[in-house]
Design a protein that fits this description.
Layout lengths: L20 H11 L11 E6 L2 H23 L9 H20 L5 E8 L7 H8 L3 H13 L2 E3 L9 H8 L5 E3 L3 E5 L27
Antiparallel strand pairs: 1-2, 2-4, 2-5, 3-5
């Protein structure tokens, strides 16, 4: 149930209820049990609760979102997409707009980071670097969900990665992987999402071949 009901939470984040540091610390201990390439454990999780810093990061996120929306408007957003994707796109867009306007108000933000940079790495090394932080980040989101907290995996702030690094004192040589807004969620529970059936997305032995 945890795996099928862990949603990207935006509109149902409770901006008023504080999040206890002890709960975050407990979730972090779970997250770092995730696998990491070569067992290097080069991860770092930056928790942001300072109101002024959240406001500055939230403003950068909003600006990046507006740039993203303009760029998407210039493209054919639904060309070649599955009908189910088109049905859900408007709902997701509304929730994304909502979060962009209120990101600065979340009780806390978590920025998962990893030692190293990807700019001059080959494809395999890039995959290895992100593969050493993303499993721990997903484990963190699952641990939060199990404790009544919602989050969303976002990356729009990376358009202003250097500015965010300056705000938070992140050293050179560190890659920010994502930005998680974290809060208790409103309502009772979540349901499994409507997805394209896995059989339509799965090939056996050769691309496009079914079972």
């Amino acid at each position: 149930k945890l795996l099928t009901t862990t949603r990207s939470v935006r509109r149902r984040l409770d901006f008023e209820r504080p999040v206890e540091a002890s709960v975050i610390a407990e979730c972090m201990e779970i997250a770092i049990q995730a696998p990491t390439g070569g067992n290097t454990q080069g991860w770092h999780f930056l928790v942001v609760t300072d109101a002024a810093k959240k406001a500055r990061i939230g403003e950068l996120y909003r600006k990046s979102f507006e740039i993203y929306v303009r760029s998407r408007a210039e493209q054919s957003a639904t060309s070649g997409q599955h009908a189910l994707y088109d049905q859900q796109r408007a709902r997701v867009a509304r929730s994304a707009i909502y979060l962009s306007r209120r990101m600065r108000e979340v009780p806390l933000m978590i920025i998962p980071c990893i030692n190293g940079r990807v700019e001059n790495l080959g494809l395999m090394a890039q995959a290895g670097l992100y593969g050493s932080i993303l499993p721990a980040t997903w484990s963190l989101m699952l641990a939060l969900r199990a404790r009544g907290l919602g989050s969303a995996y976002t990356t729009l702030h990376l358009r202003f990665e250097e500015e965010v690094a300056e705000i938070l004192g992140i050293p050179d040589g560190i890659t920010q992987a994502a930005l998680l807004p974290v809060a208790y969620y409103l309502g009772d529970d979540f349901k499994p999402a409507k997805r394209i059936p896995a059989r339509e997305l799965t090939s056996w032995n050769e691309w496009g071949s079914g079972l």
